[in-house]
Amino acid sequence: MIEKLVDVSRNYNNRKKVSLDVGYNIFTIISDYYYRENFHSDIIKSFIENERDTTFPIFLKMINLIRKQNEIKKSDFSKFSIHREKERIDILIIDDYSKKAIIIENKINNAADTNRQLPKYYDKISENYEVVAIVYLTLNTSKTPHKVDWSDEEIKQIENLLVIVPSMSSNSINLLDHFLNPSILEVKQINLNSTIRQYTKLIQYINHNSMDSISLKKFREEMLVNDNLETAISIKNMLNDLPEYLAIRIEEKYNQHCYPFKNVWRYKNTTTVFDGLEFNDMYLKLDIQCDMKGYKAIFWNPKIDDFNTKEKFQHLESLNEFISETDRITHIYKHYNFNEEDELFKFINHLLEELKLMKES
Fold it and tell me: Are 184 and 197 a contacting pair, CB within 8 Å?
């Protein structure tokens, strides 16, 4: 189980680490609207409709890259018109000369499908046009059409026409990389180009601030296998207890070997405290704060508010890599990773030896 979850957890963590500043963006300013499905449909329609000789071919190219066969010809839509909410369809592109149509269903805000939604649209438009594609726009690759209420014939019909386009994806054709960004390079109208640029930022912003459904879906699937869920819960509980165990290891190692400090004890279970070192009117402590990711070693003087610990002990080699806390010159610290326990112990041993020499000199 652990091996299978390594990639899932890595992808999940990578997405969580990404911080995106959308900057000045007109769409986030009117934030009440960009959460609505109609908003995205209005915007995408306007992009295809304005400077149509530029943007529509790019849109068709994106569809054809996904289909890989039965390519849609630009000539079949030389006199196209584009509509919002015609027959309740989010975006409908029709050509009354070729009698061909493209249905676009927008699910970027993750709205649920209504009963037999795509089959109903297909049936209605097929009365007067040949539907050559049904484009299903989603936020990411985790959403697909709801087919439970489709007949076998409907599934067969629509599967051949269905083009699922996520707004962003690292490993598939997507709206951002294959329509929006190419449009930015080609569109000449300054206002339209600027609007597309801001919309691309919005799409990135929405994606990075959404739950990572793809990773969580894979995680859930793995949890359904055998007793993996119970194992995962046990691992979670052990991870919760791990910081206390790390602190206990330090306490046990130095309980009888903490000189020139007088005592070693634990504060709130997860911080090991070396306490009671007094000399030259100084009172010094070493705190080792433990968490799941490792350790934070803090050397400080709790008695004097303006005591500059870094300056006072700059001659100690063991503290060379320690830095002062931003708002407290009394505290200097260094982080150690979880796998650096040996390095932490070397530091503690070195510091104890240097402080012992200072105290006894």
Answer: yes
Angle, CA 152 vertex, CA 148 and CA 157 arms, to 5°: 105
Per-residue pLDDT of the chain (361 residues; tens, 9 = 90+): 556 565 656 666 665 555 455 565 555 555 555 456 588 999 999 999 999 999 999 999 999 999 878 899 999 999 999 999 999 999 999 999 999 999 999 998 888 889 999 999 999 999 999 999 999 999 888 788 989 999 999 999 999 999 999 999 888 999 999 999 999 999 999 999 999 999 998 888 888 766 556 667 777 887 888 888 888 888 888 999 999 999 999 999 999 999 999 999 999 999 999 999 988 888 999 999 999 999 999 999 988 888 899 999 989 999 999 999 888 888 999 999 999 999 999 999 999 999 999 888 7
The burial of 60, by beta-carbon neighbours within 10 Å (0-12 exposed, 13-18 middle, 19 or more buried), is given as buried
Q: Are strands 263-267 and 162-166 parallel, antiparallel or unpaired?
A: unpaired
Query: How buried is 324 (Cβ within 10 angstroms: 0-12 exposed, 13-18 middle, 19+ buried)?
Result: middle
Contact 261, 353 (CB under 8 A): no
Read off the pTM: 0.59
Give the chain as a 3 state SS string.
CHHHHHHHHHHHHHHHHCCCCCCCCHHHHCHHHHCCHHHHHHHHHHHHHCCHHHHHHHHHHHHHHHHCCCCCCHHHHCCEEEEEEECCEEEEEEECCCCEEEEEEEECCCCCCCCCHHHHHHHHHCCCCEEEEEEEEECCCCCCCCCCCCCHHHHHHHHCCEEEEECCCCCCCCHHHHHHHHHHHHCCCHHHHHHHHHHHHHHHHHHHCCCCHHHHHHHHHHHCCCCHHHHHHHHHHHHHHHHHHHHHHHHHHHCCCCCCCCEEEEECCCEEEEEEEEECCEEEEEEEEEECCEEEEEEECCCCCCCCHHHHCCCCHHHCCCEEECCEEEEEEEEEECCCHHHHHHHHHHHHHHHHHHHHC
Contact call for residues 135 and 125 (beta carbons, < 8 A): no
